[in-house]
User: What shape does this take?
Amino acid sequence: MNPQTIRSWYLVHKWTSLICTTFLLLLCVTGLPLIFYHEIDHLIGNSVDPPEMPGVTARANLDDIVNVAQARRPNEAVQFLFSDEDEPHAWWVRFGETVTSQETSTLSMFDARTGKFIYDYPVNEGIMPILWRLHVDMFAGLLGTLFLGAMGLLFLAAIISGIVLYAPFMRKLPFGSIRWERSRRTRWLDLHNLLGIVTVVWALVVGATGSINTLANPIFQQWQATELASMLAPYQGQVSSADSGTVEGVVKAAKAAEPDGELFFLAFPGNRFAGPQHYTAFMRGKTPLTSKLLKPVLIQATTAQVVDSRELPWYVTVLLLSQPLHFGDYGGLPLKLIWAFLDIITIIVLGSGLYLWKKKSAVSIEDQALAAVEQEDTFVLSPSSRKSSV
Amino acid sequence: MSGALNHRQIWRMPLILAFVSIVGLLAALLGNNWWDVLSWGTLGYTMAVMLWYVLKPTL
Assistant: This one.
């Protein structure tokens, strides 16, 4: 690379980093406790486990659960019934003010074996939902989310330009060199380069999947406006009948249609994930990979007949696979601890980058780059080495 | 002045670490049990590499 090329990449690295660093620090700091959302909930008593009942394999009738849930909250609408992979003995019922409202009004847990009500999850209480909002949209709605997605893209550009700059800076240094005897700035430069290059794949993956996750709402809206709408088109204009369907029958029909799957969540009629007179059962697979993927099954409410079932389009699948890769929740507690460690390393890389920029070197970057090229005694720009640097 | 390193020397470790990281990120997604352990081991290795070079002078 000639000095001009190095300078250009340096400018890309500097400006993309400068713009996104503040927000990336916010994301890394709020993201750290969010990795352990589940564990923290348990610790502070927000979670209640269903009682131990060894040997009990009975499953409660889902209609009983939904009826009890509705009777407890007569002024709210049941939107979803869903399961939790980590809690096979529980069903969750999610309520909204209306069946279509975006916000959760109540989240009730039921014992999947006895059908007994267990507890209402404290929605929007404590500090975790605040950290979550800061991480997801900075309390600025969809615009805030999309803005953070754009910051994620700048972060990716900063990482890629950082990879390009790694070679000229490491031309004279064996891997992992930290020049402890030199100035503080040099030490931090070496640390920045070492920690940055070792965590580069993780940072790229978490950054890219985070940016994809910011598109979750538009992605589901796209699916609703195209795929779901076309599944529902034949039934448009049918008169809505009273809710005479049975949830138990609907879920049985969905399981019969997808014998290799299990119910992840059931969207109730009128919900934006379902039709005016249809339930949508989102079935997930039972293997580690397919359990992250979903297949929607459309079921007529009154007859409990499956009327349609289609694979989700590629863009929803990409979103569904981006979620575990961003959250780090797919390999037990050890993987979460690794996520936390790498998150802290990323904070150090971001912080040291900021420090290196503020503590400008006495030697300008152009001169450093020039010096690197002038010292190119044994370094020959052969075609092969040039190729591998791009 | 010591001799400059060629691209092979510069990129050897970063490429090994990138490969190891990719295996680690995918393993736990593709399977359970031993696949999870593979994930912890490979990603743990990248953490150990950082700690090794940072803590080397104190060891």
Chain A has a mean pLDDT of 90.
